[in-house]
Specification:
- Two copies of one chain form a homodimer.
- By secondary structure, chain A is mainly alpha-helical.
- Chain A has helices at residues 11-19, 28-37, 39-42, 48-60, 84-96, 107-113, 120-146, 151-179; strands at residues 64-69, 77-82, 103-105.
- Chain A folds into two domains: 11-96, Orthogonal Bundle (Arc Repressor Mutant, subunit A); 107-179.
- Helices cover 62% and strands 8% of the residues of chain A.
- The longest helix of chain A has 29 residues, at 151-179.
- The termini of chain A are far apart.
- The first copy, chain A, binds a DNA duplex through residues 1-2, 10, 12, 27-30, 46-50, 52-53, 74-78.
Amino acid sequence: MSNRNTTWLPTTAYAVLGLLSPRGERTAYELKQLADATIAHVYWAPAQSAIYTELQRLEGLGLVEHRVEPETELRSRRLYRITPAGEDALRAWVRDGRFEAAVTKNTALLRTLYGHVVERHELAARVDEHVAWAQEQLERLEATLASTQEPLRRLVLEWAIERAHGELAASRRLSETLRE
Amino acid sequence: MSNRNTTWLPTTAYAVLGLLSPRGERTAYELKQLADATIAHVYWAPAQSAIYTELQRLEGLGLVEHRVEPETELRSRRLYRITPAGEDALRAWVRDGRFEAAVTKNTALLRTLYGHVVERHELAARVDEHVAWAQEQLERLEATLASTQEPLRRLVLEWAIERAHGELAASRRLSETLRE
DNA sequence: AACAGCATGTAACTTGTTACATGATTTA
DNA sequence: TAAATCATGTAACAAGTTACATGCTGTT
């Protein structure tokens, strides 16, 4: 809040801006799909409405722009694209943007932390639920990797897959321990 | 939003409630320290003001209560404790509370995703910054584990330590790959 | 003809943060 | 005696969600 100049934006703004950085035009709807497939694994999955809001802010700052296609009144869609100023802003953020501590929200572990209020097997069931979810995530990540060429994107996906394997193993072990 | 009955509360409310579940009295200030040492590693580190707000809500619902000590006007502090209703609510949440997908916010990886806008070594420097932070976290976790007796809490900390090791290794490898 | 997916957007609301304000107690 | 820590709390704001409203396009 101390930094009110135009160069400061919340991380979410850069997350959305970056989705537009591989040159090309995309609709807000497409950006939501893209976000779910990429940034959701390393940062957060913004709601559709959040993406609309973010695009408006970015456009107000001249970091993105859009054209309407087709020009006819009915059935028109907005195609967004990053501007040179937007590329500069993204570069500045990647290079010098402020560091943020990593955050992990895992309700299975939060429940385990407070698990003394229930029977062990009930707790284990909740952990299993997380395991099933993580397994699914892993499959989605592998499918995404298979269809990704861009080298940095692949590195990130590989990192996420490795982490997913580790978390899966640790969660399975936790579940077993709880059932002993 | 569809579920407006008294049994529904956001996860953060249960996170704070659970901090009071090992019987005993704690001030809001103490809860903040506790939160930073425990739930911060698996869920989120609420701001001090968030804890005050949460306690008020929980007290309004009869899930926690407090007494003021000492009774003198000057220098008084509020000692909170969980009520039987609070224990029931916590148990119900651990047992049946709705499942939430896990979220990880890692800006080093988000930067990597968009790293094509800078030189590889600049990106690697940002990853190193994350590595240093993760290393520090790991040390804090190990210190916390050493002073923790409660079995479930230990299981969670061990899980978090294992994950931290994995993430550290993956991040170091990423940094090296970026410098090749 | 029905349904899933594509597409845009607003309004009301909840959640959570930062900054501010205050003051006592303990330790160096 | 100065600084760090303990302790409480409010106000203004930012951020993000859910629910709602609308309608086209392509597939079955």
